[in-house]
Design a protein that fits this description.
Structural class: mainly beta
Strand content: 35-45%
CATH topology of the largest domain: Leucine-rich repeat, LRR (right-handed beta-alpha superhelix)
Oligomer: single chain
CATH architecture of the largest domain: Alpha-Beta Horseshoe
Radius of gyration: 25 Å
Helix content: 10-25%
Number of helices: 2
């Protein structure tokens, strides 16, 4: 009986070792973690097919205009690039060499786009078809324009865009949620365009943007939910531009508690409601 038991253990160990050998053999030819450098950009790729999070790991290109490609080729395989993420594990921001030269940064079909910190030459960001999250865009002293569109079938969120002292305009399209304190302390921000299906504007989403004077709900068929003090400390007499009377009436109700002072609601250039205080 003891001999049978020992033989069973030996067989199990041999099977386990054979499995490990197979895994290592597979990894040798098809590793789970690959680093590839192309056109001044370093990518981290996952190759097993069960988990896709192919990301930009670093950018050392000295180009003024940087567009992250949708996909790259490596060993005759194509990998979709779905993450641009410059926040390190300890919560600090990694500033790549490209931050010294890049004036325009864009990416399409990203799952996550975040962690742009002190890119002091950067003037514009364009992120299209975002699936999950756009945010943590901080302290870019020359950043003026941001355009973000969410993928229509997803529910993309916008997080913190803060302390960008010269930011003037933002466009959010098909964004499900603009989170609490999302756009904070951007003193020169003057206009916001919200187009497509914006679902929620959370508490203090646009607070402390003292020059914010115009919010355009472009072609919106309905008004998103608006959280408490979402527009607190914005420009007195801030204008909201909507499509029709039905949307204007709904917006008037939802601005209660939003922190606006003497706000106006317009259809095109015609004022339909004024002196709204929230």
């Amino acid at each position: 009986m003891k001999k049978i038991f020992i033989n069973s253990i030996i067989a199990t160990v041999m099977l386990f070792n054979f499995s490990i050998a197979n895994v290592f053999a597979n990894d040798e030819h098809n590793p789970y973690d690959i680093i590839s450098t192309q056109n001044g950009i370093i990518y981290e790729l996952w190759s097993d097919g069960s988990f896709t999070s192919n990301s930009v790991k670093d950018i050392f290109s000295k180009a003024k205009i940087i567009k992250i490609p949708n996909s790259i080729s490596y060993n005759n395989k194509t990998y979709e690039i779905d993450m641009l993420f410059f926040e390190e594990n300890d919560g600090k921001y990694f500033i790549p060499e490209s931050a010294k030269t890049c004036k325009s940064l864009s990416m399409d079909n990203a799952d996550i786009f975040r962690g742009i910190f002190k890119w002091n030459k950067l003037k514009e960001i364009k992120a299209t078809n975002i699936y999950t999250y756009f945010g943590d865009i901080k302290n870019c002293k020359n950043l003026k324009n941001i355009f973000v569109s969410g993928y229509k079938q997803a529910e993309a969120l916008v997080g913190e865009i803060s302390d960008n002292k010269n930011l003037e305009s933002i466009t959010f399209k098909n964004i499900y949620q603009i989170e609490t304190n999302a756009v904070h302390n951007c003193p020169k921000l003057q206009s916001i365009i919200l187009s497509g299906n914006i679902g929620n504007i959370d508490t203090k989403a646009f607070s402390k943007c003292k020059k914010l004077s115009k919010v355009i709900f472009k072609n919106a068929k309905k008004v998103p939910e608006i959280g408490k003090n979402a527009f607190k400390n914005t420009n007195k007499g801030i204008k909201f531009v909507v499509k029709n009377k039905k949307v204007a009436k709904s917006l008037k109700k939802k601005l209660k508690g939003s922190g606006v002072k003497n706000a106006k609601i317009l259809i095109d250039k015609k004022v339909v409601y004024q002196n709204i205080n929230g």
